[in-house]
Specification:
about 600 residues
Length: about 600
């Protein structure tokens, strides 16, 4: 049962509309998820098991595109967290097919604006005064409309402007009733996460309920504008004195949990190449600086902007000659006080921030060093340290795969990778897909935002410079990290000595555990002849499962057909597939 809220803040009409639609919203999200999970299970899991892999492969592209189109419609209709889910999917160019990511691009730009009277009512209720008293001017047309709130340009009243030191501001106001919408969306997402936790292919890789809770925590933090204001000041403190980065000031007197007033720092959108060139700024010079600033956040500060999409990062030209510009390097602290470029990266919207715990940050630093060094074994060790790979995993074949990957594709930029024959990628995938599939990967806590930040960073840099090679930024940064790691030899030696002592102390216990596993018969031994017999048993079991599945689908279709003729008929027709497998697979085996 989806949660209901009665004590919502905001205009009464909007609140009543939200409350009245919560059940319908909840059911619509679950229907969409259930149907698409069923379709995915049928094509990606069931058909390959009955020998119809080619059917799944032939229809995959069309199915992915259709799913993305349907989700696009759902997200635009419902708004709320569905927009956030779509934005995340559109940024996952590394794991999701282009049919999905391309369709969901620009989803944020399609969010309809809330009428200004509703925004005015909520803002005045929060501030405890009329907008005309708090501001000299408030533009009724929003400068940006997002899924959780929208922003309007405004001008502070003279007294407030005198205190702040500026008068042009951006007034950010939550959408009326957004609390109830988020509550319903999270209830639906938790239900879907529970479903996925019972799918072994998913549960072996990621703790879906924990992932949903991480998403929930981030979403609830994003609608707390007091927290966003505090995050903005923490981010500014991290880059205090750094000429590359600027952050808008907070007007605390005009800020509450649902209303945020910030200095207006609107400048050139970071991916607006034409505007950058018109201002005398080369987009290709912006890309490595942006990448270095993001690296600093992730690998050094441990507090990072998790939503650095183009709408949240501006390039602000500075009023000084370009000849003075010497980009401060994130890899050389000695340059931190040197004159910066004739422009700054101005970050806004600190509602989605992430923290990297020290142990994870250490693992990420090792991963970066290993990637820059083309060290396959070191990369696998770093993946284990970060927590993506379980400590029990046997990684010999994965190390070999990473070494081969570096040997063939290491150092290539995105433009170069696009020119590689797709057959090479396919051959590589075929060679190592079994290795990757069987390893116990997982998605650690807090890793969702790290992946999002790096995905968006890569996309922005590629938009600035199509020939941008991330390795050009990674390698000098990693070299500095290597110098830092080697800087204190005594500590390194002490850590190694302590590690050796720890291994020595734990060795008797490990040997005892190994002996116990031998006694229990739980040590895995690979024997080809036994594996062949097991394979024959598995084929027999599949035929039995197919027969049972045929009966289940046929009976279910007959029962459902009384209430839903179309769906019941589909189930009865589909039951023929497992029947055919049970009959003909048995004949081939004979």
């Amino acid at each position: 049962m989806p949660p209901e809220r009665r004590d919502l803040t905001g205009p009464s009409v909007a609140v009543a509309a939200v409350a009245g639609n919560t059940r319908a919203r909840y059911r619509r999200i679950l229907r969409f998820a259930a149907w698409n999970l069923a379709v995915t299970w049928f094509f990606e899991l069931f058909l390959p098991r009955v020998g119809l892999t080619r059917v799944a492969e032939r229809t995959r592209s069309r199915r992915m595109r259709r799913f993305a189109q349907r989700f696009h419609v759902l997200a635009v209709d419902l708004g709320g967290l569905m927009i956030k889910v779509g934005q995340f999917m559109s940024s996952r160019l590394d794991v999701l097919p282009p049919e999905i990511t391309a369709e969901l691009e620009g989803l944020q730009d399609e969010v309809p604006a809330v009428p200004f009277p509703a925004i005015r009512a909520l803002a005045e209720a929060e501030l405890g005064t009329s907008l005309s008293a708090a501001f000299s001017v408030v533009a009724e047309t929003p400068v940006a409309a997002a899924s959780l709130g929208q922003a309007h340009r405004a001008r502070l009243a003279p007294a407030a402007a005198l205190d702040a030191g500026f008068d042009e501001v951006v007034l950010k106001v939550q959408r009326p009733g957004i609390d109830a919408i988020i509550e319903v969306d999270l209830a639906a997402l938790r239900r879907v996460g529970g479903w996925l936790s019972h799918v072994r292919l998913v549960s072996d890789r990621v703790d879906m309920p924990a992932l949903v809770e991480e998403f929930a925590e981030t979403s609830l933090e994003e609608i707390d504008y007091l927290l966003e204001a505090a995050s903005s000041e923490r981010f500014a403190a991290d880059f205090a004195g750094d000429p590359r980065v600027a952050v808008p000031a907070v007007v605390w007197e005009r800020t509450t949990r649902r209303v945020l007033t910030l200095e207006d720092v609107t400048a050139i959108k970071i991916t607006d190449a034409d505007a950058l060139r018109a201002a005398g700024i080369d987009p290709a010079e912006v890309a490595p600086v942006f990448a270095a600033v993001m690296f600093d956040q992730l690998f050094t500060n441990g507090f990072f902007h998790a939503d650095p999409h183009p709408g949240n990062v501006f390039v602000t030209p500075l009023a000084r000659p370009a000849t003075e510009s010497t980009p401060a390097s994130a890899t050389d602290p000695a340059l931190a006080s040197a004159p910066g470029p004739a422009w700054q990266l101005t970050f806004i919207d600190f509602g989605m921030m992430g923290t990297v715990p020290p142990n994870t940050r250490s693992g990420l630093r090792k991963l970066l060093i290993a990637a820059a060094s083309r060290d396959g074994k070191g990369l696998v060790d770093a993946i284990r340290d970060v927590g993506v790979l379980l400590p029990s995993a046997e990684t010999t074949e994965l190390e070999r795969a990473m070494t081969a990957l570096f040997a063939r594709f290491g150092g290539m930029g995105f433009a170069e990778l696009r020119d590689v024959d797709p057959r090479e990628f396919r051959d590589f995938g075929n060679q190592f897909s079994e290795v990757i599939r069987t390893l116990p990967f997982q998605l650690p806590e807090n890793f969702l935002l790290i992946i999002r930040a790096m995905s968006l960073t890569s996309g922005v840099c590629s938009a600035l410079d199509p020939a941008f090679n991330l390795w050009d930024s990674v390698e000098p940064y990693a070299q500095q990290l290597i110098r830092d790691e080697r800087g204190n030899v005594v500590q390194d030696v002490a850590r190694q000595a302590l590690g050796s002592a720890t291994v020595a102390l734990r060795l008797p216990g490990r040997l005892d555990a190994l002996a116990t596993r031998f006694e229990d018969g739980t040590v895995a031994v690979t024997t080809p002849s036994v594996e062949r017999r097991i394979a024959r048993l598995e084929r027999t079991a599949r035929r039995v499962v197919s027969a049972v599945l045929f009966a289940a689908l046929l009976i279910a279709g007959a029962v459902i057909r009384a209430d839903d003729v179309v769906f019941g008929t589909v189930l009865m027709a589909v039951s023929a597939l497992p029947l055919l497998h049970a009959l003909f697979a048995g004949r081939r085996a004979g």
